[in-house]
Structure formats: C-alpha cells, structure tokens
Write a structure and sequence with these properties.
By secondary structure, the protein is mainly alpha-helical. It has 2 domains: 83 residues, Rossmann fold; 100 residues, no CATH class. 49% of the residues lie in helices and 8% in strands. The chain has 9 helices and 3 strands. α2 packs antiparallel against α4, α4 runs antiparallel to α5 and α4 crosses α6. The N and C termini lie close together (12 Å).
C-alpha cells in the first residue's frame, strides 16, 4: 500500500459504541432517539446493542425489520450536519436497513473481534510508514472527531484535516473537498 486516505474514523472502542448506541448522541438528537428506542422494551434498554442483536437475529421477520429500520434510521438521521431526507429514506429502505443494522450490530456484539479495546491505536506502527491523510467532520455525531484526534495523537506522521462544517457523511461538501485534495496530493507520488 503506498498511501492512505481515511475518513470518519471509527476505532471500535467501547466508548464509541456506547456514545452512539447507548448514551451520548441521544442528547443531540433526542427526537430521533425516541424512534431508535421504539422496538426495545424499557426493561431491555440497559444494553441496547444486545437488545437490538436479539431482535436482528429473531426468526420473526417483522421483529427483525422493525429493529433494522430503527437502527439504520438512527444512523441515517444523524450522518449529515444538516438533516437530509433522501439519506434517511435510503437508510430505512428494507435491504439497506437489514444489511447495515445486522452487520454493524454483529461486529459490535463481538467487539469487532479485537483482543483489546485500544487495539487499533496500539498497533498503528504497522502502518506508520504509509503516508496518510485523515479527514473528519467537526460535527460528526456517528464517529466523534475525538476518534480522529486520538488516532492522530499516536500517528502524528499522518495529516489530520478536521472539516469545520461537516458531519459524518462522505458526501458533505467539505469532506468531499478534503478527500479529493488528499487523493490529488498522492496521485503522482510513489514510494520507493
């Protein structure tokens, strides 16, 4: 690999999963959060990832679909700096909702198969030699900018670009601008 351009950093740490799926981001989007919670009974809300996993793997298709649409709808409603109805519609479409929710929830339930919570940060030496640009939206609610900052702190050789007017979505104008600039930067460079 000669170069890396990374966007919307997610390190699969427990704090990140809890922030978005258990408590934290709900303070920014309390209205949308209520929709996310709907398929989960009050008595199971202490571990929402576990409760969703139970429903996303249910033999009852209506239970699976309700959980998938709530999970994916939550993400689709929060990925942009400003609400985007087209994205929400895409995320809550049957196929997208089931695929996104089941894959994400399966990974989170299994700790992304990492040995430790900070595995990606501890093993950054494996990629330290690769020229890289990290692009992250300042107002990314799905993957807070702290993730990119934490990665850059252990990998200062990478360039960190925080986009002041962007959330998580790749199609945010500032994110796209920085991604294109990073690719242009690397396009004619080679590693000896």
């Amino acid at each position: 690999m000669s170069h890396l351009v990374l966007r919307g950093i997610f390190l699969c740490r427990k704090e990140e999963i809890e922030w978005f799926y258990q408590r934290g981001a709900d303070k920014i989007f309390p209205d949308v959060w209520q929709e996310y919670l709907k398929p989960i009974p009050e008595n199971e809300r202490g571990d929402l990832v576990k409760a969703f996993y139970k429903r996303l793997t249910s033999p009852d298709e209506s239970v699976r679909m309700a959980a998938a649409k709530a999970w994916s709808g939550w993400e689709g409603a929060t990925v942009h700096l400003l609400p985007d109805e087209q994205t929400l519609t895409k995320f809550t479409g049957d196929m997208m909702a089931v695929a996104l929710a089941r894959i994400e929830c399966h990974f989170f339930t299994n700790g992304c198969w990492f040995e430790t919570d900070d595995q990606l940060l501890r093993k950054v030496d494996a990629i330290r030699h690769i020229p890289a640009v990290i692009v992250h939206g300042r107002y990314d609610v799905v993957c807070p900018v702290k993730n990119a900052f934490d990665l850059h702190r252990v990998w200062p050789e990478a360039t960190l670009k925080i986009v002041a007017d962007a959330g998580h979505a790749v199609d945010e104008p500032g994110i796209m601008r920085e991604l294109v600039a990073a690719v242009e930067k690397f396009k004619n460079r080679t590693i000896a």
